Amino acid sequence: MTHSVLSRIRPDQIRRNGFVVGIIENALPDDCYQALAETFPTEFIAGPQPLDNNVAYRKSTAEALSRPEIPSIWKDFLSYHCSKAFFAEFCDVFEEDIARLHPGLEANFGKPLAAFDVGVRASDGADDPSNADCDLVLDAQLSINSPVFEPSSVRGPHLDSPRKLFNALLYLRHPDDESTGGDLEFYRLKKGRLPGETTAIDPDLVEIVDSVPYGANTLVMFINCPHALHGVSPRSVAPMPRRYVNFLGECHGGKSAGFFRPPDRQGLWRSLLASARV
């Protein structure tokens, strides 16, 4: 039986610190989680070749569903989390937050959020034009960060694409993994500091406001917005990969691309700088 990663969320598990983050420990029932963890297809994700130090590897739901070696429990799990039913669950939990963070979203698409057409994100990613055939496309990416030979962060502070509505991670930490770090961190800009890009932000320009440990069966979901600066803390030397499912929802249609207003990067940073001065 497929269980939703949102089936156990409670109002007190949602944090609002200028952005919106839902955190659920023991997100899935034990039997469901153990079955997924024991059949996690690491080699399908990264291949058999030697892996570089602390690099992200991902395979889309579209690709996983096409492969006969993927266990049926995983195909069912991925399919559900790319479905209209899952998006309805998401709306039940976060619709009011989205209306507050993105007040022009429904007008941009000419319909309520819950009425959005939903599809599976193309395996070629954000640049595939077929993603614009639906109001919103969902993906649940089988993911690892490769073993760590030199302590490092797989990705530092950054802001996601303005086409992304939400992101979530379900951690499948191996029980023998004794590494430290690899936690998801959320930041705000230090007062008076203004980076020039939305990627690879200098860690000296931000300060941590929240952190979610890399723990087995932990789900962290956040709404994408100009304040949702996030990254991964440095991970210690680790012979085992950091395992997770990366859930996301993107919109490629509407009257204008992206959720942020104005959609240009300088507009984003002006908004961030204003929030940092509060």
Give a verbal description of the structure:
With 278 residues, this protein is α+β, with helices and mostly antiparallel strands. The chain has a single domain, classed as Jelly Rolls (Sandwich), CATH 2.60.120.620. 23% of the residues lie in helices and 24% in strands. The protein contains seven helices and eleven strands. It has helices at 30-38, 42-46, 61-65, 72-80, 84-101, 105-109, 265-276; strands at 14-16, 20-25, 56-59, 118-120, 136-145, 164-171, 184-189, 206-212, 218-223, 229-232, 242-250. The strands form two sheets. Strands 1, 2, 3, 4, 5, 6, 9 and 11 form an eight-stranded mixed β-sheet that branches. Strand 1 (14-16) and strand 2 form a beta hairpin. The longest helix is centred in the N-terminal third of the chain and has 18 residues, at 84-101. The model has no long low-confidence stretch (mean pLDDT 90).
